Amino acid sequence: MPESVIVTGANRGIGLELARQLAGRGDRVVGTARRPQKADALRALGVRVEKLDVAEPASVAAFAKALDGVPVDVVIHNAGIGEEGPDFASLPVEDLERSLQVNTLGAARVTQALLPNLRLGRRRLIAALSSGLASLERNRDGGWIAYRVSKAALNMLVRTMAAELRPDGFTCVLIDPGWVRTDMGGRDAPTTPEQSVGNMLATLDGLRLKDSGRFLTARGRDAAW
Ligand SMILES: NC(=O)c1ccc[n+]([C@@H]2O[C@H](COP(=O)([O-])OP(=O)(O)OC[C@H]3O[C@@H](n4cnc5c(N)ncnc54)[C@H](OP(=O)(O)O)[C@@H]3O)[C@@H](O)[C@H]2O)c1
């Protein structure tokens, strides 16, 4: 049955491909962009496009208002920023702050704002794009500090949401798309957005309440915390 799906940061990269594949199979997609007037590729898909900057509380409030009363089955927190950045010794703390604002607090605010919509929907699935770089146990090399910190915090956020929202039938997961050829992933990435998104959607389709709280690879295996 077609579902109503929200994809944040859907104007390029993995988010655009998520919107393309979801729309292509008949789901009702709302794709968000910070600048909808410039989101030509997203608009060309024929999906509903809404303005959203996840780091701006007023923008999140306006987005929620635009969707007032609309049932939503699935929210995919895809919007994110990430770059290698300087070593810790010269890291501006503002870089940490910005990454947390977008990657962590963005997902928190958008989830809170959309809980009423998710309660109106059937699936009650929340998926957040995390990263292998979020792993505490696999981090031996350093680098990407702001990104790692913000995605590790996102992992804890979603893991906690999963526990608290389980009685209400919500499935909340983290999913690592792999190293994907986008503006963020760069040209050397081995995986195309098409491949990654194909794998992720197959994984998300198969999730049940018992899977809530998992950190998954795109192919649905357990990722290292
Ligand atoms: N590519 C990889 O190898 C890889 C690996 C692991 C995890 N991921 C994760 O996968 C997700 C998508 O990555 P990607 O490679 O597709 O990145 P991308 O090509 O850089 O695209 C990022 C998207 O996020 C949006 N965004 C950034 N800041 C935002 C904000 N404040 N509010 C709303 N939207 C914002 C961007 O919008 P603008 O165009 O307006 O900037 C863009 O649509 C991210 O969460 C990323 O961390 C990617």
What's the short story on this structure?
The chain has 225 residues and is an alpha/beta fold.
Overall morphology: globular
With helices defined by DSSP (H or I, 4 residues minimum), what is the helix count? Answer: 6
> How much helix, percentage-wise, in residues?
25-40%
- Helix/strand-derived category reads alpha/beta
- Total DSSP E strands: 7
Please give a structural write-up.
Strand 2, helix 2 (40-44) and strand 3 form a beta-alpha-beta unit. The chain is globular. Helix 4 (93-120) packs parallel to helix 5. 40% of the residues lie in helices and 14% in strands. The termini are far apart. The relative contact order is 0.15. The protein has helices at residues 13-24, 40-44, 57-66, 93-120, 145-165, 193-205; strands spanning 4-7, 28-33, 48-51, 74-77, 125-129, 171-176, 215-217. It has 225 residues and is α/β, with parallel strands linked by helices. It has 6 helices and 7 strands. The chain has a 7-stranded parallel sheet, sandwiched between helices. The mean pLDDT is 98. NADP nicotinamide-adenine-dinucleotide phosphate binds next to helix 1.
